[in-house]
Amino acid sequence: MYNNGLGSPADDDRVALLIDGENISSALAGKIIVEAGKFGELLVKRVYGNAARIRGWDEAPGIKLVHTGLGKNAADIALALDAAELSFEAKVRTIVLVSSDGDFSHLATFLRERGHVVAGMGEGKAPVNYRKSCSSWLTLDTNPKDMDQKILAEMRKQKDGLLIGRVSPTLRAALGVTLSDLEEKTWRKYFEKRPYTFKITGEAQQTRITAR
Q1: Of the candidates 54, 44, 91, 106, which has an alpha carbon nearest to the alpha carbon of residue 75?
Q2: pLDDT of 67-91, one tens digit each?
Q3: Which residues contact 41 (CB under 8 A, 6 or more apart)?
Q4: For the residues of 78-108, what is the DSSP string, one character each?
C-alpha cells in the first residue's frame, strides 16, 4: 500500500464503501470489509451491478446491493452519482472505491479535490493512473489455485462438458466468476493453458470443454 500524503484516517472517521460488483468478485467481500473497516466506521456499504450477473454479492453480510439493470456502464454511473451525493451531503470523510476499472480515476480525483480521503482497492490489473488518483491503494488478489480448483470442480459436474458459449454464463451463475477475475483474456485461452485438466474438442461455436 502507498499513501499520497493526505494523512492517516482518524479513528472516528465515517466511511463509505462503494464496490463495483461487475468488476470485483464477491469472493473478496470479506477481505474488503476488513480492510475498509480500518479507516473508521462503515456508515455506507454498497455494491453496484446487475443483480443477475454479480452472484454472491447478495449474500455479503451488511452490504446493500444496488441493482443497476442492463444499461451500458450503469453500475459505474450509479456508483459515481452516489459518491458525489455523499460528498455534497458531507456524510463521510473517507470514501473507499473498490474497482479495477481505470475510469474511476476521474471520480477519485474529483473526490480528493473536495477534501475527501479516497482509499482505492482493486486487483493487480488496475491501471497505475487510477491507483495514483487515490489517496492510498490496496491490491486485492484472489488465490489463483483456489479459483482453478473451484472452476474444475464445477466443470466436472457437467458430464457432457460445455459448449464454449455456455462456459461464461454457467460459471458466473454457479461461482460468480467472470473473465475479469482471471489473467486470461478469453475462456478458450484459460482452458488451453490447462491441457492436463481440460479437454478441448470441436471448432468455433461448436468448441466443447470437458473436465478430465
Answers
A1: 54
A2: 998 878 899 999 999 999 999 998 8
A3: 12, 13, 14, 15
A4: HHHHHHHHHHHTT--SEEEEE---GGGHHHH
SS3 content of the chain, % helix, strand, coil (to 5): 40, 20, 40
pLDDT in tens, 104-158: 999 999 999 999 999 999 988 888 999 999 999 998 876 666 778 889 999 999 9
Listing DSSP states for 128-174 in one string gives HHHHHHSSEEEE----HHHHHHHHHHHHHT-TT-EEHHHHHHHHHHH
The three three-digit cell numbers of residue 39, written as one number: 479507516
What is the amino acid identity at position 15? V
Residue pair 93/117 in contact by the 8 Å Cβ criterion:
yes
Q: How far apart are CA 74 and CA 76, in angstroms?
A: 6
The answer, yes or no, to whether residue 4 has pLDDT greater than 70, is no
- For residue 73, the model assigns a pLDDT of 87
pTM for this predicted structure: 0.68
What's the rounded Cα separation, in Å, for the pair 98 and 69? 19
d(CA 137, CA 174): 30
Per DSSP bridges, beta strands 2-3 and 14-20 are unpaired
Can you tell me the mean pLDDT for 88-100? 93
